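Re: export button greyed out
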Amino acid sequence: MSQRQRNWEALSFQIVMTVVAVLALILIVSPSLVVVIVSFTSGFSLKFPPPGYSTRWYVELWNAWQLQFAARNSLVVALWSTGLSIMLGVAAALAISRSKTLTAKLLDSLFMSPLVLPALAFGLAALMFFSLIGLPVSLLTLVIGHTIVCVPYVVRNTVAALAQLEPTLLESSAILGASRLYTFRRIVLPLIRPGIISGAFIAFMSSFDNVPVSLFLRDAATDMLPIRMWQDLEGKLDVTIAALSSVLIIATVALMAIMERTTGLSKRLTG
Amino acid sequence: MKSATTAPGDVTSFSLGLALPLGLVFAIFFVLPLAQLLFLSLHNDTAATVWGLGQYVKFLTDPFSLAVLGSTLLLGAEVTLACLVLGYPIAWLYQRSGSRVQTLIIMIVLLPLLTSVVVRTFAWIVILGRQGIINSVLQSLGLIGTPLRMIYTQGGLVAALAQVQMPLMVLPLITAIGRIDPNLSDASASLGAGSWRTFVKVMLPLSMPGIIAGCTLTYAAAITAFITQSLVGGGQMLFMPMYLYQQASTLQNWPFAAAISIIFLFAVLAIVALFSTLGRRARGYGDAR
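Workaround output, generated via the alternate export path:
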């Protein structure tokens, strides 16, 4: 192959890959941008571009008590299940990450399985189980269900952080006379904290947004935000939902920026 | 402060007993419910008194149910392929960029993963709808007279799902491509291979673990994506999650819904197992080169 031919080939490869990548990135971002723009429409429909701009739908949001009620429930459930996920998940991650036994491997697959199994099947199973043991649908059943599907994120991120922890640090701490608990508090915990936090962040987001489990474990008294929004959208295309969506998008971007600053989220998820 | 009484090797590991609380929670609230689901699916009547494989026979001999299963599996394949074709260049670009651009790319890729599923689906309705962006642009350019029907079509659904599931493909790919020794590409080039040849013969095989991991995650996520399927797919297309939900919630036919769940669950597991077998093969292939 001549040099010219090769240069041309290298160039064509780079151009094709870069163009596809940039197009794909635009494809990923544009839907979110569209929602934010459309939410400022002065009209009654989701026409794009909007006929004019106003903040009327945000004012409307202020009075949408059903959505606010659902949002509060979602927040309460997400906070509780994230808290439980951290407590149970970090302990479990400590136990399985440095053990090479078969039990540890099996437990690891068990704790990860909610990520692959269809959550809707689990939601149905949980509903049938709770009705069998006589536990009525409530915020409690939602917290339990959400914890099961959110805990894998905490376990996975904590295990990843522990894998990067130098065992020699633990040994030196012990040699210098520190107790196991002291070593844990002063050496292990500070070093794995960013991993725990980013796992907890993803667990929180996925609980706040959970549909398949909430679908079965909620009723009118425990309405959850994503389900309320879904049901509203099935009936009509409500511009209030666009305003709410754009509030959620902006909140998410802000949280992501904070997470990136404090835990290096992007490095953690690609490392 | 107490001095360590355990052997030096011990201090680097933690007691397996720490997994006990989560293990118990999983045993009671995860394994038991799924076992009960299986138990219920093995009954022919709604009251769960007559044992039998009736529900499974009903599903597997019903052309309608089989068509739902088939179109769900096909949908997953289409979305996975779209994610791979669009996601690989993103991961490739990431590895060639400076750290600022890298962070930007990751943030863009993560955005759909972290925004609410209803929100991102809703965005697609705004884009694909009758009065949506694509139709407005095409109409104002005079390319079409009447609005195209894009929402409630398979193509629209695949586009929406691909955007939503993209992070699940890109993140493992970035990790896998990052682990490839750059010297290998240089070696391939100095031995006379062009960029495309190096890509096909060196990069693709070596990034196979990432491809497999990404495909497994996107496939599983795409076929279980209840909200996107129902809002962008509309009433015309029925997929397994909605089928399951209708049988359980609207028709209250729990044993049949349980059987659908189990069949769906095994379909997902079979796909995951297939991918991981391919993954093991691919690793062998990668090592051999």
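Chain B touches chain A through 102 residues (CB under 8 Å). The button fix ships in the next patch.
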